[in-house]
Design a protein that fits this description.
The structure holds two protein chains of two kinds. By secondary structure, chain A is an alpha+beta fold. Chain A has five helices and two strands; from the N terminus they run ααααββα. In chain A, α2 crosses α3. The chains are: A alpha+beta, B mainly alpha.
Chain lengths: 135, 197
């Protein structure tokens, strides 16, 4: 009732929802740990990167079963940082008439992943305790 | 293989459709349905929905954190204000007709004067202050204040021996809450428009 009242009052009858992801532009534009994992999964998947394959890729490569909600939260942040872009495909009956949203890494995203790899490689090199294969 | 979600699971999807933000709402619901039809359990689906909504909720809470802080400061200001110097608090213990109503109205006015600058500063600092928003906030606040006033006065009429200070603070709390909700709402509206453009 309250939401409906606000809708009428503001004239946002069909566009307004109780919650919406509305945040200021993020202060940093490099990916966090989980965001980096998602970004790399997208790059690995190529043209078939939407929620389900991304979660499967993360499960296969990291052994972590991430929830789709947390994956989409990371995707949302990555998109705000300009590291990935997305487009909606046509709705399919197999998904209850809901469309898939395909993600792809932007040039900025690829550059960011490369820069992160370079930084990590430098950090890793020369550490005696981390030499050789993990036990 | 799960093909048809039960009514309870349809309710989970309804929550998702209603609460989860638009850009990824359809995609997430479709992904959940796709994985669910691969044979995932009801428990798995509920966990996914709860985590998704929890993620959104925590982000929203972080978004309005400054408003909550201003609300706390506003409450502290009005609680610390020496109401006894400007209001006949003892007389308010035994409310009688127009005098009491006039006193409560002056409390309203004074509270708005005390608290409004804080919220106005917040609106300006967060770039959510336009004339259109001001009008919306004004109307919303007026409605919320009227509601809060009606509640407090109704309560006061049934507890005529109550202490005046308590009544004032209760009313101040209601008014501040009204202003907080209006401010947070205005900010959200402003950001929503930025997002859409």
């Amino acid at each position: 009732l309250v939401v409906g009242y606000f809708e009428i009052l503001t004239g946002a009858t069909s566009e307004y929802y109780l919650f919406a992801i509305l945040e200021d532009m993020p202060k940093r534009d490099y990916p966090g740990e989980f965001e980096l994992m998602v970004l790399l999964a997208i790059i690995r998947l190529g043209g078939n990167a939407y929620g389900v394959p991304i979660s499967k890729e993360l499960m296969l490569t990291t052994g972590r079963e991430a929830t789709l909600g947390s994956i989409y939260a990371a995707l949302d942040r990555l998109e705000q940082k300009g590291l990935v872009s997305s487009k909606l495909a046509d709705p399919t009956p197999a998904r209850g008439g809901r469309a898939k949203r395909y993600f792809r890494a932007t040039p900025k995203g690829l550059k960011s992943a490369q820069a992160t790899k370079k930084a990590f490689t430098k950090l890793w090199s020369g550490i005696a305790q981390l030499a050789g294969e993990p036990v | 293989v799960n093909k048809n979600p039960s009514y309870l699971l349809k309710f989970a999807f309804f929550l998702l459709q209603r609460i989860y933000p638009r850009p990824n709402r359809e995609a997430l619901a479709g992904d959940l349905l796709e994985k669910f039809s691969e044979g995932r359990s009801n428990r798995w689906l509920w966990r996914q929905v709860i985590v998704a909504l929890g993620t959104v909720g925590s982000r929203q809470l972080r978004l309005i954190l400054p408003e909550i802080c201003v609300f706390a400061v506003a409450i502290t200001v009005v609680c610390a204000f020496p109401w006894g110097l400007v209001l006949p608090l003892e007389a308010m213990d035994k409310p009688n007709g127009t005098e009491w109503i006039a006193t409560m109205l002056s409390v309203d006015a004074l509270t708005v004067l005390l608290v409004s600058p804080l919220f106005a500063a917040l609106l300006i600092s967060r770039n959510a202050f336009t004339w259109a928003h001001s009008l919306q906030i004004g109307v919303l606040t007026l409605l919320l204040l009227s509601g809060a006033d009606a509640l407090v006065r109704e309560w006061a009429l049934h507890h005529q021996s109550s202490h005046g200070t308590f009544l004032v603070l209760l009313q101040v709390f209601c008014i501040s809450a009204g202003l907080l909700i209006s401010t947070a709402f205005a900010r959200r509206l402003s950001l929503q428009r930025e997002w859409e453009h």
